[in-house]
Amino acid sequence: QVQLVESGGGLVQAGGSLRLSCRASGSTFRFNAIGWYRQAPGKQRELVSAISSGGSTNYADSVKGRFSISRDNAKNMVYLQMNSLKPEDTAVYYCNYFSGGSWGQGTQVTVSS
């Protein structure tokens, strides 16, 4: 699988918003489910949200109602819109094929209280 590249992280105050982007190359991207994951310091990586090739979505309970995942297959992009951010959302965020693949560098999201 082609490695995906994350961007869009940053420092934001609690209650703020960020939009993360995940870019892939190759023509098979549109046929794959993609997940957004995060890893906070001292914690295991966890699945935050996923989107199927057909656009079905699911979310971790901790982000339901605040985060929204979407994809643009024409651009080979997946996005994670994060609203009402909380300090506990602070982590490195990664995107990856739901079926597995190599991990990229991720993008740091820091939410200050």
Describe this structure in words.
The chain has 113 residues and is mostly beta strands. Helices cover 0% and strands 47% of the residues. It has no helices and 10 strands. The protein has strands spanning 5-7, 10-13, 18-23, 34-39, 46-51, 57-59, 67-72, 77-82, 91-97, 107-112. It has a 6-stranded mixed sheet with strand order 2-10-9-4-5-6, with no helix packed on it. A hairpin with a 5-residue loop joins β5 (46-51) and β6.
Task: Show the helix and strand layout.
Elements: E1 5-7, E2 10-13, E3 18-23, E4 34-39, E5 46-51, E6 57-59, E7 67-72, E8 77-82, E9 91-97, E10 107-112
Parallel strand pairs: 2-10
Antiparallel strand pairs: 1-3, 3-8, 4-5, 4-9, 5-6, 7-8, 9-10
Principal-axes geometry comes out as globular
Low confidence ranges: none
Taking the alpha carbons of the first and last residues, their distance comes to 38 Å
User: Can you give the helix content as a percent range?
Assistant: under 10%
Neighbour order of strands in the largest sheet: 2-10-9-4-5-6
Number of helices, counting only DSSP H or I runs of 4 residues or more: 0
According to DSSP, the number of beta strands is 10
Mean pLDDT, all residues: 95
Q: What is the string of helix and strand elements?
A: EEEEEEEEEE
Largest sheet features:
6 strands, mixed
Cα radius of gyration in angstroms: 13 Å
Q: From the helix content, strand content and strand pairing, which structural class follows?
A: mainly beta
* Strand-residue proportion: over 45%
